[in-house]
Amino acid sequence: MTLHVVILAAGKGTRMKSARPKVLHPLAGRSLIEHVLSTADPLQAASTTLVVGHGAEDVRAALAHRPGLQYVVQSPQLGTGHALLQTEPLLKDRSDTVLLLYADVPLLESGTLTRLVEAHRGARAAATVLTAELADPYGYGRIVRDETGAVARVVEERDASGEERAIREINSGIYCFSLGPLFSTLHQLAADNSQGEYYLTDLVRLYRAAGLGVTTLKLDSADELRGVNSRVDLADLSRVIRARKNRVLMLGGVTLEDPGSTYVDEDVSIGADTVIGPRVILEGRTTIGGGGRIHAGVRLTNATVGAGVTILDGSVVVDSEIGDGASVGPYAHLRPGSVLGPDTRVGNFVELKKTTMGRGSKANHLAYLGDARIGERVNIGAGTITCNFDGEQKHPTVIEDGAFIGSDSQLVAPVTVGKDAYVAAGSTITQDVPAGALGVARGHQVNKAEWAAQRRARKTERS
Ligand code: UD1
Ligand code: CA
To answer: Which of 54, 147, 315, 414 has the most CB within a 10 Å radius?
Structure first.
């Protein structure tokens, strides 16, 4: 039996009060729709269709990296039942099964979807509704059961009687449908409710009236069924996702000193025996090897960090690589395109941009190194600056293996300091320094003997 996934993502998300479509709001580093798509991925459905409407072009553009998706546009958006109806032209084979997901229910787990599909097929039902009990069911559709305990209908919060509102079993909005009777019944939906919408939930009542089988799969916990309707939900669910990720990391051998303040995106991986301090933020596709130490207040975005690396407090690393055994910070800034070799050291208040540093090289204090290619075992003194920008263009600096750059030097690019060469402290280097040479480029010192006494004498004369 063939499985098709349909994801409803056309709604405006009024309660978000946002110019951005709700499904593109990020939750722990991934958009809501990305969360749902990656939950569905393991089911390997024959087709995945997104019903889009509000902000349709933005949604498509944001998902351009997933070329296999089909889209149908729902315009105007007349409710969840109307939304599913839009897929009729795409889903023709009436023997197939449809798994319906909402783009604003991001915590769902793949295993739950597999169970839902199995329960649906096992029961040979026309529809299977995923449900759970909530302590506070406010806002959700409620599952109304008949005297036999079978589901009779779903009633929305706004349309529910006082008695129905007391029901704690909620409709998750996730269903499995057999395609056979689906579209002919959807055509019968009426918008006779408080919102004037075509409610997908009314299908349950229509199916029962037609004698078609409707079953439920009730989960023990409703946590993964929580939907995002407002930014309050977004914050609440982010906490859940972060806690989940942190738990996976800790069970994988990573120490989190303060999990509550550790923000790790879904796609981040960290090796065992790495210790993460408080207020660390790890974003995007960051990977960190084992046995390392990331101290408080560090932010890494798309960073590739080797094994046994120490990153000290307050450092920021973006789109850069750090080799095994390196040490970075405190308060270092690695901007995009920086590559630190193994056992390098980049210390206090050092900024790198598009700069590579070979094995064992050091820049321990207060430096700006931009567009530089630095070899192995190079020592960059405190206060060194690569002057890489002439106001119009960027120029490269090359510092070869074993070179020593004295403190407070400026290297005016394009310029090369050769292998094992020295630059004297305080130099402004505008010409290449050949291998093994000493480059000195600073004013000569003059000492004026007895100058202080003479100055005092001049002062006394004047008064
Ligand atoms: C819906 C269910 C409710 C359930 C809850 C679970 C209905 C009528 N109600 O309510 O029983 O408890 O979800 O979270 O189905 N959408 C469209 N086109 C539309 C309207 C909505 O694509 O015309 C999409 C939205 O983008 C969203 C999803 O459908 O992804 C749910 O819509 P929403 O308006 O949030 O429904 P709820 O009021 O939460
Ligand atoms: Ca919703």
So the answer is: 315
